[in-house]
Structures are given as C-alpha cells and as structure tokens.
Amino acid sequence: MTISQRDTDEHPKIIAIRAGLIEHQTEPAAMSTPAPILTSSTDWHWSPTPFPGVDFTWLRRNPDGGGSALLKLAKGAKLPLHQHPGTEQVFVTAGRLKVGEHVLNKGDHLFIDAHVPHAVEALQSAVYLTLSESDGVELMEPDQAG
C-alpha cells in the first residue's frame, strides 16, 4: 500500500466497485452536477497493508487528496507511531481500539489534528472508518513524539 499515492489522471473519476474489482470510468465532460457514489458493503475490496493483521478498503478518494477508508485489524494488530499532514477522524464500527492514549469502543469517534503523533492497537478484532483531509503519513520513531 502506498499511503501517499494520489490519482494523477487529468480527469476526475467515477469509481464503481463491483464483485471485488475496481472499475475506473472517466467522468463525462458534459457532466456538471455531482452524483452520489455508492459503495455497497458487498463490494468492499480488502487489501493487505505492510502491517501484519491490518487490511484496508478505500470507500472514497477525494480529488484533492485524502478520503475515506475502512481499516480492519485482527486482535493485537498494530499501526506504528505516525502522523498525518492533515486532520484525521476515526469512527469505530466494530471492536475495540487504542489510538494514542484513547481507548475507543464501537460507536466512538476521535478527531486527530494534523501533525499529532499516534499509534493504533486493536484490543479486540476491530473495524474503523477513517476520514482524512489530505494524503500522506509519516512513520515516526517513539522518541520523536511531541
């Protein structure tokens, strides 16, 4: 997974996810009204991350960076200490997580400001929605935390 990768095509995309495959279609030039984009739960395409026990699926990539994704963590799985150049929101849909110093249960929401170091650990198998305002992540050594 290239966390800071952005779609660099010249035209915006309409993304349709069907049967686990992502199909890209160039937006018609005459289309002037934005349309809702549905990603059904039966259409999620889970991909592994470089971190054992952590998978993700994009729900929406914003044209200017960032977007929404689901992360699925096995019990005990961890994301190392890191920070983002923009804000991040975390909403737990299943299980229990520790994000930084906060323990989050199903239904909990956490707002993380830009450049705030945090790690993630699954205290139980968990799924969470992350909303990021911009692309990018910087992995940090524990002694770099503010």
Automatic annotation (TrEMBL):
Secretion signal span: none
Matching Pfam families: Cupin_7
Superkingdom field: Bacteria
Chain ranges of the ChrR-like cupin domain: 37-123
InterPro entries: ChrR-like_cupin_dom, RmlC-like_jellyroll, RmlC_Cupin_sf
SUPFAM superfamilies associated with the record: RmlC-like cupins (SSF51182)
Protein name according to UniProt: ChrR-like cupin domain-containing protein
